[in-house]
Amino acid sequence: MFDKFKNEEGEGMVEERSMDVEESTESSSVTESSSQIGIGELMGKRAKLEEAIDYVGLMIKNLKDKRTLLEKDIEEESVDIKNLKEKLQKVSEYIEEENRGIEELANKRKQVESEADEVGSIINTLRERLSGVDRVIDDEGSRVRKIKESRDSVSE
């Protein structure tokens, strides 16, 4: 890549010198002597170095752009993760609330079961008492019949 720019710029500088040479013969002898001592090559190297510096500058700009994009992506991910964390916190709170609700329902169910057992016990007690009353009534009914029968038999 540097060679492309080197050749183009290097030749451009040589062409400029050539024009100067044509304009004055005195310059021509200076240019020839400059070429002999390597100034043309030195100028070519300087052009290559300028190209390299420009290329490095472009690489630095690209790296800065990439870093900026990466920072932006990381910030977006950070925001997304914070949002997810908030949502998960809300889900956790919901689960805790539901667990408390389930625990309350379980306690209410236990109360209702206890009351149902108590009602069942009362029903059994009342049933026994009614059975007792029924026996008493049956016994009294039997006595009344016996008394009636004994009257009837005495009356006859």
Describe, in plain words, how this protein is organized in 3D:
Helix content is 97%, strand content 0%. With 156 residues, it is mainly alpha-helical. Helix 1 packs antiparallel against helix 3 (39-155). The longest helix is centred in the middle third of the chain and has 117 residues, at 39-155. It is rod-shaped, with a radius of gyration of 57 Å. Residues 4-25 have low confidence and may be disordered.
Helix content range = over 70%
Count of domain modules: 1
Q: What characterizes the major β-sheet? A: none
Distance between the termini: 148 Å
What integer is the average pLDDT? 82
- Radius of gyration from CA coordinates: 57 Å
Features of this protein?
3 helices; mainly alpha; 156 residues
